[in-house]
C-alpha cells in the first residue's frame, strides 16, 4: 500500500507540473526516478523493495508488454516503407554498431567477460524518445529528424530483444544452451502477435459484428490481453508477441489504431512511470557508493562515444545537416526497455547478474538525467535557426526607422 500511495502522490504532482516540464528542463521521468530514490530503503525507507521482489518482475513485464505493443502500433508497414531511409540506417547499422562498441567498452574498461559485455551492449542499445520529448514533439525541429528518432526508438526495442534473450541464455548456461527452444519461443511469439490481431480485426469487419464508438478503444486492449494470455499459456516470448501484435494492428487496422492511440499511450505511460518509481527505489546511496572509476567512465563513454560513433558511420553520405546529425547522435537515451531488460537479468539469476544490472542501472540513470535535461536546450537551438541573425534584425530595424523619418519630412516646395 505504501508503494501505491507514493505513486499516486508523485503522479498527481507530475500532472500538476506537466505544463512546466514541457517548457523547462524539468523532466517527469527524472521526477519519478528521484522520488523512488528518496522513498527507498536507502533514504526515507517508506518503500521496502528489492530487485527479486515478485512485484518488480510482474510490473516490469506488464509495462514492457504495454510499451512494446504501443510502440509497434506506431510503426505499421506503411510507415516503415514511407520512411525507411534514415531509420533504416539507424536500425540496420546504428543498432548493431552501438551494441558492439558498448560491449567493447564494457570488456575493456570494466573487465566483463565477452558474453556479459555483449549482454550489456544489447540491453543498452535500445533508445527511448520519452526522455527527449521536447525534441521529438517540437515543430521547430526538422520533421525528418523527429521521424528518425520516433521510428528508430519504436522499433529498436523489439529488434534488440532477441539478442538479449540469446545472450542471457548463453550467460546463464553456455554448456547447455538450447537454441532450438529459444528460437521456438521467439517464433511462436511472433506468430501469436500476427495471428490474433489479424483474426480479431477480420471478425470485426464481418456483418455479424460491429464495435460501438464507446468500446472502440477497448478493441486493441482486448487484442493485447489475448496475446498476453496466449503467450503466457504457450510459453512464447511475450515481448516479441506484443511488438508483432502492435505492428499488425497498425498495418491492417487503421481504425483500431486511431481509436486506441491516445488511450494506449496513457496506459503505457502510467505503467512506465510506475516502473521508473520502483527502479529508483532499488537505487539507494549504497548502490552509487559501490562503483569505482571504471564504472563511471563506462557509463559516460556509453553515452558520448558508443552511439555517436555508430550513427556517424551509419549516416555517412546521408546529407543530414551538422546540427541534425549531432542531435541524432546525442539523443540515444537509454530508456524503459533497458530498465526492464536489466531487471530480467536479475530474474534470470546468471552468475554475473549483480554486476551486469549495476552497470546497466548506472548508465540508465546517467542517461535519464543527461538527456531529459538537455532536450529542451537542443530543441531551442533548432528554433533559433528560424530566427533572423542580429545583422538581419538591425537591417530590418534600420529600414523601418528610415521609412518613419521619410514619412515625417515636409513635402518639398
Task: Give a brief outline of the structure.
The chain is mostly helical and about 425 residues long.
Structural overview:
The chain has 413 residues and is an all-alpha fold. The chain has one domain: Na+/H+ antiporter like fold (Up-down Bundle). The protein is built from 20 helices and no strands. Helix 4 (54-74) runs parallel beside helix 12 (238-252), helix 6 (85-110) packs across helix 9 (143-172) and helix 15 packs across helix 18 (353-372). The mean pLDDT is 80.
Derived from helix and strand composition plus strand pairing, the structural class reads mainly alpha
- Spell the H/E element sequence: HHHHHHHHHHHHHHHHHHHH
The major pleated sheet works out as: none
Supply the CATH architecture. Answer: Up-down Bundle
What is the overall shape? globular
Instruction: Indicate the percent of residues in helices.
Output: over 70%
**What percent of residues are in strands?**
under 5%
State the CATH topology: Na+/H+ antiporter like fold
How many helices?
Answer: 20
Query: Overall pLDDT, averaged?
Result: 80
Instruction: Please report the total strand number as a whole number.
Output: 0
Terminus-to-terminus distance: 90 Å
Q: So what's the CATH class?
A: Mainly Alpha
* Domain count: 1
**Regions with little confidence, pLDDT below 50 for 5+ residues:** none
Amino acid at each position: 500500500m505504501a508503494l501505491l500511495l507514493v505513486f499516486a502522490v508523485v503522479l498527481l504532482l507530475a500532472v500538476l507540473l506537466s505544463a512546466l516540464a514541457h517548457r523547462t528542463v524539468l523532466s517527469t521521468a527524472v521526477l519519478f526516478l528521484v522520488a523512488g530514490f528518496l522513498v527507498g530503503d536507502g533514504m526515507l525507507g517508506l518503500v521496502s523493495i528489492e530487485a527479486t521482489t515478485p512485484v518488480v518482475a510482474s510490473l516490469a513485464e506488464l509495462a514492457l508488454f504495454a510499451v512494446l505493443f504501443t510502440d509497434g502500433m506506431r510503426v505499421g508497414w506503411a510507415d516503415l516503407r514511407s520512411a525507411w531511409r534514415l531509420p533504416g540506417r539507424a536500425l540496420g547499422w546504428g543498432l548493431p554498431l552501438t551494441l558492439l562498441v558498448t560491449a567493447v567498452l564494457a570488456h575493456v574498461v570494466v573487465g566483463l567477460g565477452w558474453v556479459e559485455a555483449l549482454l550489456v551492449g544489447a540491453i543498452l542499445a535500445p533508445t527511448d524518445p520519452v526522455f527527449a520529448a521536447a525534441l521529438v514533439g517540437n515543430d521547430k525541429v526538422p520533421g525528418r529528424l523527429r521521424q528518425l528518432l520516433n521510428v528508430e526508438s519504436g522499433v529498436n526495442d523489439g529488434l534488440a530483444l532477441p539478442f538479449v534473450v540469446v545472450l542471457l541464455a548463453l550467460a546463464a548456461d553456455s554448456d547447455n544452451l538450447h537454441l532450438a527452444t529459444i528460437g521456438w519461443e521467439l517464433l511462436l511469439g511472433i506468430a501469436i502477435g500476427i495471428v490474433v490481431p489479424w483474426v480479431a480485426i477480420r471478425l470485426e469487419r464481418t456483418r455479424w459484428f460491429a464495435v460501438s464508438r464507446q468500446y472502440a478503444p477497448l478493441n486493441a486492449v482486448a487484442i493485447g490481453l489475448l496475446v498476453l494470455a496466449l503467450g503466457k499459456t504457450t510459453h512464447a516470448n511475450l515481448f516479441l508477441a506484443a511488438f508483432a501484435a502492435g505492428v499488425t494492428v497498425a498495418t491492417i487496422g487503421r481504425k483500431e489504431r486511431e481509436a486506441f492511440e491516445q488511450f494506449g499511450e496513457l496506459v503505457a505511460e502510467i505503467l512506465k512511470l510506475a516502473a521508473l518509481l520502483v527502479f529508483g527505489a532499488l537505487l539507494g546511496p549504497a548502490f552509487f557508493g559501490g562503483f569505482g572509476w571504471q564504472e563511471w567512465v563506462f557509463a559516460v563513454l556509453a553515452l558520448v562515444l558508443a552511439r555517436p560513433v555508430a550513427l556517424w558511420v551509419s549516416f555517412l553520405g546521408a546529407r543530414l545537416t551538422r546540427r541534425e546529425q549531432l542531435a541524432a547522435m546525442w539523443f540515444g537515451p537509454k530508456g524503459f526497455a533497458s530498465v526492464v531488460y536489466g531487471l530480467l537479468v536479475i530474474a534470470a539469476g546468471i552468475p554475473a547478474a549483480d554486476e551486469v544490472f549495476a552497470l546497466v542501472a548506472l548508465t540508465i540513470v546517467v542517461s535519464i538525467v543527461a538527456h531529459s535535461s538537455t532536450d529542451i536546450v537542443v530543441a531551442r537551438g533548432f528554433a533559433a535557426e528560424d530566427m533572423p541573425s542580429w545583422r538581419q534584425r538591425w537591417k530590418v530595424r534600420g529600414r523601418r526607422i528610415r521609412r518613419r523619418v521619410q514619412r515625417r519630412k515636409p513635402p518639398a516646395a
